[in-house]
Structure formats: C-alpha cells, structure tokens
Specification:
The chain is built from 3 helices and 3 strands, in the order H-E-E-H-H-E.
C-alpha cells in the first residue's frame, strides 16, 4: 500500500472518530415534555446540549403533532407545558 493511501485511511478514521465522539457527548440534557393545546395532548422527548434547547425541542416536537399551520404552532410553543420530566441533567 502506498504512503498516500495509508495517510488517507488515517485521516478518514480520525475524522470519523471526532464525529462519533462529538455526537456521543453532545446531549447533556434529556427531557420529556407534555403539552395540551386546544383540547389535544401530546408528549415528546428530546436531548440537547443545554436545558433550554432540550426543553424547546421537546415542546416543538409535541406541538408539531397537535397544531396545524404557523400561527397554531407558534401559539402552542408559547403555551406552558402541562408536564416536564427531566430524564438526564
């Protein structure tokens, strides 16, 4: 095998290692959020690097299933969740 091929393989393995390492340690917070909007209720779980991002992602995911249109989605996401359970902090 040529020197260039070996260096290329080492580079690819290093890049894959960095990608895997960064994705494994990124989510420090995990939360389950339940939202009730216009008589419908939905719960979703999300993970993120900060508490705020995890809470916002879980709320957005829950609202996506029980609201329709941009106006409803925004109103739902601004509502107070009916239940918040932190699974990892």
């Amino acid at each position: 095998m040529s020197r260039t091929a070996i260096l290329g393989i080492i580079f690819v393995v290093a890049v894959l290692g960095v990608i895997i390492y960064s994705t494994m340690n990124l989510a420090h917070f995990r939360v389950e959020v339940c939202v009730t909007f216009r008589g419908q209720s939905q719960c979703r779980t999300a993970s993120a690097d900060t508490e705020e991002h995890a809470l916002r992602s879980a709320t957005s995911n829950a609202c996506a299933l029980i609201s329709s249109g941009v106006t409803d989605s925004m109103a739902c996401e601004r509502s107070i969740p009916t239940k918040v359970t932190w699974l990892k902090r």
